[in-house]
Automatic annotation (TrEMBL):
Lineage of origin: Eukaryota, Metazoa, Ecdysozoa, Arthropoda, Chelicerata
Disordered: annotated segments: 1-28
Sequence ranges of Low complexity compositional bias: 1-12
Descriptive protein name: Coiled-coil domain-containing protein 6
Membrane-spanning parts: none
Gene (name only): Ccdc6
Organism listed in the record: Araneus ventricosus (Orbweaver spider)
Domain of life: Eukaryota
Pfam families cross-referenced by the UniProt entry: DUF2046 (PF09755)
Amino acid sequence: MADSASESDSSSVDGGMLIPSSPASREQFQKRIESLQQENRVLKMELDTYRLRVKSLQEENKALRQASVNIQAKAEQEEEFISNTLLKQIKTLKKEKETLALNYEQEEECLTNDLSRKLNQLRQEKVQLEQTLEQEQEALVNKLMRKIEKLEAETLGKQSNLEQLRREKVELENTLEQEQEALVNRLWKRMDKLEAEKRMLQEKLDQPVSAPPSPRDINNGDLAANLTMHVQHLRNEVAKLKTQLLNAQQE
């Protein structure tokens, strides 16, 4: 298209311009034509260069388009592969999740059953222990109550015995005191009488001739010995009663 345009331009120049009549003008005109032709050739060479470049760019563009198509196809393949791989992994994970959930449910059910069984067993053992403890406590309470009742009865018996012993002690002390007082009175009277008899005997001894002892004097000596023995017997009885009283108080 550039060649035809340049040729048409040159022909139009040649045909449209009037050839000058003078030699100088013709020479100048000829130079002008040569210059235009030279410029036309340069433009033609540039046009060819541009054509080659456009063709190269078109081929490069085609190659790029093909590469883009190839890359897109490869990307689609890789995307499909990745998608399939991810789907497989998702399915695998889903199966593993279902398996884990099932195992967890089974283990949880087994653990729940085991714990329920142990809880029931512990409750039964607790009930048995409570019953056993209640029975033992009841038996112990009954035993303690019987022992307490026995001790109370023994205590009451001992208190009764102690009260009786105290009363007997008081009675014995009163009786002993009365007997001692009566005995002392009798002894004092007897001592006074013996002193009087002694003085009388002394007076008789002071006489020149002593008379033989009368039976009354012999009886008086026996009476003193009997009184002494009776007093000693009463003292022994009092000591014995005091010992029994002390033993009863200690019990």
